[in-house]
Amino acid sequence: MKKSIKNIFVEGAITPEKIAQSIAAHQSKTGIGAHDIFLGQVRADEIEGKIVQAIEFTAQIEMANQICHDIKEHTFERHPIHCMHIYHSIGKVKAGEICIFVFVSAAHRTTVFNALQEVVNEIKANVPIFGKELFEDETHQWKENK
Fold this sequence. Notes:
8-stranded mixed sheet
């Protein structure tokens, strides 16, 4: 049976409550012995004397969801993980707020460590999500995805 493609996007910042709820939802899954979480936070970088106040995220939504679905499927094929969740902000996220949340669960820690690193690197390299850095003087520039 083919899995449905999930929407990874959350309007605005990813809240601590969403992160806590995701963790809590896994307590009944007693075959899980390890979780690993990646949280990406908007930095208040100084660029040419200006401070980043926020990032406004846009994406090719349908394509981004398909690529994340494929990343998840390939990860399940390569690693014995129990589950994985990917969430990314769309819209404006202020400096200090969370913009990406990736959560991997498996029986053992080495599995989640390895899987999570691969997943985050693949997302950063291949998913069409774009960030416009917004400065305090109301100017902006497109962020380079590193």
